[in-house]
Design goal:
The complex is a heterodimer of chains A (99) and B (178). Chain A has 99 residues and is mainly α. Chain A has three helices and no strands. The chains are: A mainly alpha (99), B mainly alpha (178).
Amino acid sequence: MLLNQFLLLAAVLFCIGVYGVLTRRNGVMVLMSIELILNAVNINLIAFGTYLSDATGQAFALFIIAVAAAEVGVGLAIVLMLFRNRRSIDIDAVDQLKG
Amino acid sequence: MSVLAVTEVLVAQNIAFAIIALGVVVAGVRLVTTENVVHAALWLVVVLAGIAGLYILLAAEFTAIVQVLVYIGAIVVLFLFGIMLTRARLGEGETVNERMRIPALVIAVAMFGLMAYSLWGYFGSTELEVVGRSTAELGQTTAQVADSLFLTYLIPFEVVSVLLLAALTGAIVLARRD
């Protein structure tokens, strides 16, 4: 197996995630696209960890998984607040702070 | 390695990689394009399971198990609860921002082109030598991960635990109805 196989697959997933973040209007869908991006990073970390025969890659991937869990918890709470106050989770409509 | 020759293992690994990669990419594309939010969450399960399979191919067994437990077991359930609690009436307006579709596609393809160009230029056909080497030789056993996590990265580990506590407390405060 080539190292690049994994790196290129991670790059594809990352770009799919970026596309999702930019196009989706549903707040929950944006969070799911962010998960895709974080997972692409994890593939890179694990691939380099195995390539360099080092457990650090896995340790950092575990940190990212923990941070992703925290991010989803807070993100969904914010989306929930948004829904409760506006009866909609269209993030394009949240522009009160626009100058 | 006594039963199969090295090249046979390599072929088997490449076939497994191709199947998983195809599944992950198709599921990822469906995830960001499907109109139904619940279907998107189920496509996310396919992507996450495929990535767990990739971790197994890379000999990172502990992270693969954590991926299944935390992502598929906890985060996807959290997403489904989020979808349930914020159910926007189905068929009420499109969920995709049509105005952004073309620019987003251009940005995504350009980013992939840049990354593919630089990755291929730098790593080229660097071989990932996993065949015939034990997990311990690759430094990926659970014991080695534990050594890394609880010796070298002990303080970041404790900081992450405090971060999780703060984030979950914050989530409860935000979501509480009062």
